[in-house]
Design brief:
The chain has 5 helices and no strands. The protein is 78% helix and 0% strand.
Length: 180
């Protein structure tokens, strides 16, 4: 009897949450569809603008600060579009978590703007962070059902990681090592 009561309670809770979830989607659709589309258009425009600015300057002639700021812009656009997707499906907490990262990127941009000499260190640290991410993804590639990675790219990142470790003492465990 207790199991039947428990199953009945779960069924009622499921039906109630299903109705509230559908109601939430209807509210989002009715009230926020146009602002979400406008924000998505802004994201597309910002992405295209960033690509256009990036394409005008050859890689060898890009100042470190501009290169770093363009990479931050690229990350910010990706995270902004992820946030829009989360908002559109009603996941406010997920969107807020992504907005926090946007805030961190804006702080990094301001630090680099105020202290441009840190830009080469930030760029060098990107290789350290990429290596750590690449290594973690490689470890879990079977569980994540990922294709094999390019071993040459992995070797390049490993070499850059080792160079950064010997030059700066970075191990990739602190995301702000480049600023110290």
């Amino acid at each position: 009897v207790m199991i039947q009561d428990f199953m009945e309670m779960n069924k009622k809770a499921y039906e109630k949450s299903k109705c509230s979830f559908e109601k939430l989607h209807q509210i989002i659709y009715n009230n926020y569809t146009i602002p979400i589309h406008i924000a998505a258009g802004y994201a597309d425009f910002s992405y295209e603008l960033g690509c256009a600015l990036d394409s005008f300057i050859p890689e060898a002639h890009k100042p470190h600060l501009q290169f770093a700021l363009l990479r931050l812009h690229e990350k910010a656009i990706k995270i902004f579009t992820e946030s829009l997707s989360l908002i559109a499906i009603g996941s406010a907490s997920g969107a807020m978590a992504r907005w926090r990262i946007l805030y961190e990127l804006s702080v990094i941009s301001k630090v680099l703007e105020k202290i441009p000499d840190l830009a080469p260190r930030y760029i060098a640290y990107l290789n350290t962070a990429n290596y750590k991410c690449f290594k973690k993804l490689n470890t879990y590639k079977e569980q994540l059902n990922l294709a094999s990675f390019d071993s040459n790219r992995f070797d390049e990142l490993k070499k850059a990681f080792d160079e950064n470790k010997s030059a700066f003492g970075w191990d990739g465990n602190d995301p702000y090592e480049w600023a110290k």
